[in-house]
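Anyone? Bumping this.
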Amino acid sequence: MSMFSNLQQPFLRRALFGGLAAALPAYGQRGRRGASADEENEQFPLPKDEVERRIVAVLEAMHSGGGTYLSVPVSDGKMLRILTESCLAKRVVEVGTSTGYSGLFFALALSRTGGHLTTHELNEGRAATARANFAKAGVSSLATVVVGDAHETVKKVKGPVDVLFLDADKEAYVHYLKTLLPAVRPGGLIVAHNTGMVPEYLSLVRGDPALDTVIYSGGGGLSVTVKKL
Ligand SMILES: C[S@@+](CC[C@H](N)C(=O)[O-])C[C@H]1O[C@@H](n2cnc3c(N)ncnc32)[C@H](O)[C@@H]1O
């Protein structure tokens, strides 16, 4: 009798796979300080050097001092950084700057890739705060804040864009996508936040054979779309 035919015995299956299932979460999902996977995802990244230390310090101060406004959770910020850095992005466009919190996660990646963020914000006060936060973090040269109604300002965006991040007025996601998709380079990413609130946007990206989309629902609900090569 082979090992596999033995597995047809219910008690053996339970012993083997039940034991594995019980052991795996404890093995793979405990992180720093014994945090759970979800808690670990919400930890700020460990700074690699002085450049990252300055950026992370501003992120932490914004987080603990009420300096964010409708900003992404840390887990989504880290995802933005990871996606941006792993595709060696040179040009990132964000719609919805707020106070620059997600922009600083982009800056973590762009300080490595030598890239630049152009971020669009309607509210002048929040745009000014974002600029001040970028200056405090030492990354002013990595980010341009465009003040105005993004319904109009995005029409001036020129490609190629490596990563596009939509995080402003949800009812305009479809408009932003239609306006900006031609500027996204083949192989580039379109990331949208709070996608649970934008079913028509999801129908559009899921229904386009030139795109492929996955939704990461752990943080605020992030859809990640590739414009196929
Ligand atoms: C959810 S917040 C952005 C959060 C930011 N991405 C972060 O994680 O820190 C949305 C921002 O979009 C801005 N916004 C809303 N409608 C806009 C428009 N039509 N044009 C430009 N910005 C807009 C709001 O003023 C607000 O600051």
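Late reply, but here is one note on the structure posted above: Residues 1-27 have pLDDT under 50 and may be disordered.
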